[in-house]
């Protein structure tokens, strides 16, 4: 739990709002419901844009998708938005931290979308008992993590109207057999990918990339099983996530030696 660092992780800080069906077919997240979700905001020559999601995995690092950061390699242009409730109004509870270092998986391949994982080191250490107590890391899985039957994707991607929502959205994304995604996507790789979502008017969309597919475990904590990577027509086919379990050793290595 808390990724071998003894950190408290995976606790929702509020009672959830009942989930609706880009998120497509999603519903608003309650403030503090998924306190590890962050938004990556990048400064494009003075134009600050929310371009992807990410998750807090410990006091110094956030986890995201490689394709979110590969073309925007300047760490000092990132603002990591924590405890975001309303994306556009930036209320007083929001916390902001700068990025210090970006590390993209050395074998990331954009063409076949493999190893689509990256880590961002924060410029300051988060204090989960003090200044940053509104946020908390998500737990990372191990082979013995026993899941309850509930997985949810969260993000600020486009909704059914093709608009970016003001509030963080959530949608149920049940895990699916690898074959379901392998039949849809030629590049699907079950060693490093996870298949999720019903594809029935609900799923992730443009802008949700890098955010988590989080699943409730039988211990009552939330674990990050996937990172939103790619999909087909939003909400109409299952989505593909990076299989976090396949990269635990990579994450540990980066976090330990950087």
Automatic annotation (TrEMBL):
It catalyses: Selective cleavage of 103-Arg-|-Ser-104 and 124-Ile-|-Ile-125 bonds in Limulus clotting factor B to form activated factor B. Cleavage of -Pro-Arg-|-Xaa- bonds in synthetic substrates. Residues 23-256 form the Peptidase S1 domain. GO terms for biological process: cell adhesion; hemolymph coagulation; proteolysis. It comes from the Eukaryota. The keyword Disulfide bond applies. SMART domains: Tryp_SPc. GO terms for molecular function: carbohydrate binding; serine-type endopeptidase activity. InterPro entries: Peptidase_S1_PA, Peptidase_S1_PA_chymotrypsin, Peptidase_S1A, Ser/Thr_Proteases_Immune/Dev, Trypsin_dom, TRYPSIN_HIS, TRYPSIN_SER. Keywords: Cell adhesion, Disulfide bond, EGF-like domain, Hemolymph clotting, Hydrolase, Lectin, Protease, Serine protease, Signal, Sushi. The keyword Transferase does not apply. Its EC number is 3.4.21.84. Belongs to the peptidase S1 family. CLIP subfamily. PANTHER family: TRYPTASE-RELATED (PTHR24256). This is limulus clotting factor C. It comes from Medioppia subpectinata.
């Amino acid at each position: 739990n808390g990724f071998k660092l003894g950190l408290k992780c995976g606790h929702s800080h509020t009672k959830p709002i009942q989930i609706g069906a880009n998120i497509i077919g999603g519903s608003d997240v309650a403030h503090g419901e998924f306190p590890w979700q962050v938004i990556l905001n990048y400064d494009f020559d003075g134009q600050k844009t929310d371009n992807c999601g990410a998750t807090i995995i410990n006091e110094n690092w956030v986890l995201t998708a490689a394709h979110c950061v590969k073309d925007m390699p300047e760490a000092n242009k990132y603002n990591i938005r924590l405890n975001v409730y309303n994306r556009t109004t930036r209320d007083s509870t929001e916390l902001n931290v700068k990025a210090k270092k970006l590390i993209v998986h050395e074998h990331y391949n954009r063409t076949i979308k493999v190893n689509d994982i990256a880590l961002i080191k924060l410029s300051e250490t988060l204090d989960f008992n003090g200044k940053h107590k509104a946020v908390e890391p998500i737990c990372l899985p191990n082979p013995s993590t026993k899941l309850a039957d509930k997985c949810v994707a969260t993000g600020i991607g486009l909704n059914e109207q093709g608009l970016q929502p003001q509030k963080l959205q959530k949608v149920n994304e049940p895990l699916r057999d690898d074959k379901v995604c392998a039949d849809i996507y030629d590049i699907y790789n079950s060693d490093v990918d996870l298949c999720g979502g019903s594809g029935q008017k609900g799923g992730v969309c443009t802008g949700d990339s890098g955010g988590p597919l989080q699943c409730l475990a039988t211990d009552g904590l939330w674990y990050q099983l996937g990172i939103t990577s790619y999909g087909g027509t939003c909400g109409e086919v299952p989505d593909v996530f990076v299989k976090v379990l396949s990269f635990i050793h990579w994450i540990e290595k980066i976090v330990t030696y950087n």
